[in-house]
Amino acid sequence: MSGNRKGLGAMGENLAAQALEQAGLNILARNWRCAQGEIDIVAQERDVRAIVEVKTRRGRQAGTPEQAITEAKRAKLCELAQAYAESIGWEGLLRIDVVGVELDSSGRLLRVSHWREAVDCW
Question: All domains of the chain, ordered by start, with CATH?
Fold first, then answer.
C-alpha cells in the first residue's frame, strides 16, 4: 500500500473513531489483527460489540466509501468477526458496522456516515 493511501486510511480511521465516540460508543481496539486479517475498530455500545470497517475515499473516482463493501469484503468481515469473538471468548451480541468517510479531491471532509448492522452474517 502506498504511503499516501496508508495515510488516508489512518486519517479516515481517526475521524471514524471520533464519530463513534461522539455517538456514545466506547473504542476497545484499533487495527486488531489475527491470521485472517485486520479489523479497523472494535467498539462497544451498551451490551453489543461492534466490528467496524472504515472506508475512506477522496473524490468519487472509485465510487463512494460504501460501494467498496463488496460481497467478498462482507464475507471477510463475517470471518473476522467470528475470529475476534472466538479469540476473546465473546458470547454476547456482535454486529458489523461500516463507517464511510468522504473527502473532496483536495482533502476537505465532506461527511462521516455510520451504518449500524451494515453486514448481516448470522
Answer: 3-119 (3.40.1350.10)
**In 10 A of CB 10, how many CB atoms?**
14
| CA atoms within a 13 Å half-sphere pointing along the CA-CB vector of 28 | 15
| Model pTM score | 0.92
Give the C-alpha separation, 16 to 20, whole Å: 6
Q: Which residues contact 47 (CB under 8 A, 6 or more apart)?
A: 92, 93
Amino acid at 18: Q
| Direct distance between the N- and C-terminal alpha carbons of the chain, in angstroms, rounded to an integer | 32
The Cβ-side half-sphere exposure at 119, using a 13 Å CA radius, reads 28
Per-residue pLDDT tens listing for the chain (122 residues): 455 777 888 999 999 999 999 999 999 999 999 999 999 999 999 999 999 999 999 877 778 888 889 999 999 999 999 999 999 999 999 999 999 999 988 889 999 999 999 999 97
Angle (CA) 11-113-44 rounded to 5° is 80
Q: Measured between alpha carbons, how far is 60 from 108 in angstroms, rounded to an integer?
A: 13
